[in-house]
Write a structure and sequence with these properties.
The complex is a heterodimer of chains A (about 400) and B (about 200). Chain A is an alpha/beta fold. Chain A has a domain at about 15-195 and about 305-400: Rossmann fold. Chain A is about 35% helix and about 15% strand. Chain A is built from eleven helices and 14 strands. In chain A, helix 3 packs antiparallel against helix 4 (about 230-245) and helix 4 (about 230-245) crosses helix 6. Chain A is globular. The mean pLDDT of chain A is about 95. By secondary structure, chain B is an alpha/beta fold. Chain B has eight helices and seven strands. Chain B has helices at about 5-10, 25-35, 45-55, 65-70, 90-100, 115-125, 150-160, 185-190; strands at about 15-20, 40-45, 60, 75-85, 105-110, 165-170, 190-195. Chain B has a seven-stranded mixed β-sheet, with helices on both faces. In chain B, strand 1, helix 2 (about 25-35) and strand 2 form a beta-alpha-beta unit. Chain B starts with a helix and ends with a strand. The relative contact order of chain B is 0.16. The model of chain B has no long low-confidence stretch (mean pLDDT about 95). The chains are: A alpha/beta (about 400), B alpha/beta (about 200).
Chain lengths: ~400, ~200
């Protein structure tokens, strides 16, 4: 997913928020991974907004996408080194917003394997050998969810009112609902899929190849001074192409030139010809500053391995969905060619076969895969209404109706 | 609530599971959920209407009814409703069979094309009739077929679709009140509602 949020003048913000950390597992009780390997210690970076009710019936877990982090909304205190940049879903999360922090207790954690505060290849190996690098075991979406489950237990949340996420966050939403059916009352998978297509894997593989072909990568043993910056930047550029749409790119850039009136007839790395080239280079540069190349390898691998049917339904998607108990709101976007609408329809079909309570809508939007991150009245209203009704239903069932 | 929907609701038992094909903005489902404790699921084509349904707490899938119904297992619902949509269905026999596959009962309603106004219009003006129920001209109508009560009965017999109940309504569908007709139904009914089922 892209980063659209630079600054929003908005009074409805959760304000100053703080990243927190939760560490679990130890040498005696390590965290077991799907691969059969284990981690002697896991730390998750997370943020929470709002307050958990005494009944514990208002917790909303947000799952972030590929390169996201726990910072969903609000600002990190500039006095403590915060960037002053709002969280990645500031549009959606805050007081009076669709995921209303006055009503809901909102949690988001950085996924296992990432580099935004949670344990991953950029963390120190507790055996004292330095950073993990490629010694970090390969993790899966299921492993990420199991780690989040530990955090939810630590926060003493008896059951999640809802789990919400787009793209790879949506995969986590789906895994949550099949892995811990009794813990998920409602689920909102956005712009996502039950498993990657060959096309999806291909894009990820090209991105990984870009990193691994960078001489600085050095089989994952690089130093801050000599990072595989070029490879990681190219990997990011590939991602950005898949997040937009033909139409969005045409409108945003067309064939316009960047700061020039004529072609350069040259291959200048600093002065590109086209605006779209300039945009991609900028996105690449910006990404390299904040993201770890090895983490990128691990997380894309996790997304590629994800297969809901294989994991929870012995190959049958309907079988997987028959494990779930949640009420679902599935949303796709018309111009998303990374996870097109038919991928969401496959999910909905399986949910119908399995007798799940499901709502589905394809939102007409022309910003490609990234549409779920952008201002969209339709999306906002759907999420707000669905959460509202889900909470009312949950409370009615629990016998303390509002 | 619309009178025709009241009539449909009267045939739906308390606590039933209901699939509403072409549920619009969810008026029937919302009523059934509130007053009859029904577990409802809707299918609707229009994005706006799906959004309104979700806004009132209903579970609705955006899609084509002919395709969406195929995914449900046999006997998944107690009642499947097709309200005011039959005249737009391309393969009615296939859809009605599907309705009775996924549901124990089917409810079908449509505007009656043998109403006396329609007969008189065609007879006197020689033009394709237009009524408040079927207000379009031949060139812009979404209604690809016209159906009379008698036609529908014949059709059901031919396709082995048992009719359990029938109500002929003498009312504009926008109205909240109306009558269920006893006599001269073919001439006087603006709408027909049929309850289908396998015994």
């Amino acid at each position: 997913m892209s980063e659209y949020i630079d600054a929003i003048a908005d009074a409805n913000t959760v304000g100053i928020v703080e990243k927190q950390f939760f560490t679990f597992a130890d040498a005696h009780t390590p965290f077991l991974l799907e691969s059969g390997q284990q981690l002697p210690s896991v730390t998750l970076a997370y943020e929470t907004y709002g307050r958990l009710t005494p009944e514990g019936d208002n917790a909303v877990l947000i799952c972030h996408a590929l390169t996201g982090d726990a910072h969903v909304a609000g600002y990190h205190d500039p006095a403590k080194g915060g960037s002053g940049k709002p969280g990645w879903w500031e549009l959606m999360v805050g007081p009076g917003k669709p995921i209303d922090t006055d009503r809901y207790f909102v949690i988001c954690s950085n996924v296992l394997g990432s580099c935004m505060g949670s344990t991953g290849p950029a963390s120190h190996n507790p055996d004292g050998s330095g950073l993990y690098g490629l010694d970090f075991p390969v993790v899966t979406i299921g492993d990420m969810v199991k780690a989040q489950r530990e955090l939810i237990a630590h926060l003493k949340i008896p059951r999640l009112l809802a789990v919400v996420g787009g793209s790879m966050g949506g995969m986590q939403v789906l895994d949550w609902s099949c892995r811990y059916p009794e813990l998920v009352y409602a689920a909102i998978p956005l712009a996502t899929t039950a498993r990657h297509s060959a096309l999806n894997i291909a894009f990820h593989e090209v991105a990984r190849q870009a990193i691994m072909a960078d001489p600085n990568w050095n089989r994952g043993r690089y130093t801050p001074a000599s990072k595989p910056a070029t490879g990681l930047a190219v990997a990011r550029m590939i991602g950005h192409i898949t997040y937009l749409s033909d139409e969005a790119m045409r409108r945003k850039f067309g064939r316009r030139l960047q700061d020039r009136d004529a072609f350069s007839f040259d291959f200048d790395l600093d002065l590109p010809d086209f605006q779209v080239e300039s945009y991609l280079r900028y996105q690449g540069r910006k990404f390299v500053e904040r993201f770890d190349a090895n983490s990128f390898l691990y997380i894309t691998k996790a997304a590629d391995y994800f297969d809901l049917a294989a994991q929870h339904g012995q190959g049958s998607l309907a079988g997987a969905m028959s494990r779930a108990r949640a009420r679902f709101l599935v949303i796709s976007f018309s111009s998303d060619w990374l996870y097109p609408t038919y991928r969401s329809r496959e999910l909905v079909q399986a949910m119908k076969k399995a007798g799940r309570d499901v709502s589905f809508m394809e939102i007409d939007a022309d910003f490609g895969h990234d549409a779920f991150l952008l201002q969209n009245e339709r999306l906002s209203a759907l999420i707000a209404n669905f959460l509202d009704h889900s909470q009312a239903k949950l409370r009615m069932e629990a016998g303390h109706a509002v | 609530m619309r009178f025709d929907l009241q009539q449909i609701a009267s045939w739906i038992p308390h606590g039933a599971s209901v699939l509403d094909l072409g549920c619009g903005s969810g008026e029937l489902l919302a009523h059934l959920q509130r007053h009859k404790g029904v577990r409802g699921q809707g299918i609707e084509h229009s994005e706006d209407k799906v959004a309104r349904c979700i806004g009132r707490g209903l579970s609705v899938i955006q899609g084509d009814i002919n395709a969406e119904i195929l995914d449900y297992p046999d006997g998944r619902f107690d009642v499947v409703v097709l309200s005011q949509t039959l005249q737009q269905v391309y393969k009615p026999a296939v859809l009605l069979k599907e309705m009775l596959r996924v549901g124990r009962r089917g409810v079908v309603s449509f505007p009656n094309f043998s109403h006396w106004r329609i007969r008189v219009q065609l007879l006197l003006t020689g033009q394709a009739p237009r009524t408040s129920e079927l207000p379009y001209a031949w060139w812009n109508t979404p209604n690809i077929r016209v159906i009379t009560l008698k036609d529908f009965r014949t059709f059901c017999k031919a396709h082995d679709l048992p009719i359990l109940e029938e109500a002929a309504l003498d009312t504009d569908y926008r109205r909240q009140d109306g009558h269920v007709l006893r006599a001269w139904k073919s001439w006087r009914a603006r709408y027909g509602i049929f309850l289908l089922g396998n015994g």
